[in-house]
């Protein structure tokens, strides 16, 4: 049976603090009025924080590489008028 894990969407951070060896990051989602509203708290032991940050850094580099790779052919090849130029923005990364 598959594990059920909650999915949390966040597009910002409201606050971050460290207490008792745990980093607590209050995540935010932008409401329709444009203001940030809390949507969850990410709790990470400070001993694991560097590994998590390195993982996010690696993910960011992979995203940048893929975006550059997709942009190059588009810049080199001009699409004919009326052609569909939609580019997929979905990526899947392995750890």
TrEMBL record:
Residues 70-95 are annotated as: Disordered. It comes from the Bacteria. This is Uncharacterized protein. Residues 70-81 have a biased composition (Low complexity).
């Amino acid at each position: 049976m598959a594990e059920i894990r909650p999915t949390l969407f966040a597009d910002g951070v409201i606050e971050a603090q460290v207490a008792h060896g745990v980093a607590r990051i209050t995540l935010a989602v932008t409401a329709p009025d444009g203001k940030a509203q809390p949507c969850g708290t990410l709790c990470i032991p400070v001993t694991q924080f560097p590994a998590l940050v390195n993982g996010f850094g690696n993910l960011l580099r992979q995203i940048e590489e893929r975006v550059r790779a997709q942009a190059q052919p588009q810049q080199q090849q001009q699409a004919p008028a009326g052609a569909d130029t939609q580019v997929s923005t979905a990526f899947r990364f392995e750890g």
